[in-house]
Amino acid sequence: MKKEFSRVLLKNQSDEILILKDRPDTWNFPGGKQELGESALECAIREMKEELAVEITELEEIFTGPLVFDSIVWQGHFYFAKQAQGKVTLNEPNKIKGVQFIKRFEEVNFSPGLAPLFDYLARSDYLKLNKTNWK
């Protein structure tokens, strides 16, 4: 069975990107593993609501590809949420150790497995040109 996950990028009103700490030494974007029978998009929406109590709509897939974590190949799906509603709330404190908004990705440590995503984002103006509207 293919291992797949979905992650979500979204901004606050100050144009900062939401990240969370789900590993001891690295930060990540909200999201998680797909459940059986679930699409990548459904996974992204479910994980945001479960982890952070934020409902997202108008998602655009901005990057998809194989990523390697601990010698395991995963198919990663990364979405940008154009609409969000709710107050960011840590719903799973046993799983997620912190949440913050950052201006630049260099501010924190991310897993080296995310390098293909960051390579894409470095070549693209997508994040500069798009905003998340909060209700």
UniProtKB/TrEMBL annotation:
* GO terms assigned for molecular function: hydrolase activity
Membrane-crossing residue ranges in chain numbering:
none
Please indicate if the UniProt record lists Hydrolase as a keyword: yes
Domain (Nudix hydrolase) ranges: 1-135
Query: Which cofactors, by name?
Result: Mg(2+)
From what superkingdom does this record's organism come?
A: Bacteria
Task: Kindly provide the name given to this protein in its UniProt entry.
Answer: Hydrolase, NUDIX family
InterPro entries on file: NUDIX_hydrolase-like_dom_sf (IPR015797), NUDIX_hydrolase_dom (IPR000086)
Answer whether the UniProt record assigns the keyword Mitochondrion to this protein. no
Keywords for this entry?
Hydrolase
Q: Which PANTHER family match?
A: GDP-MANNOSE MANNOSYL HYDROLASE, MUTT_NUDIX FAMILY PROTEIN
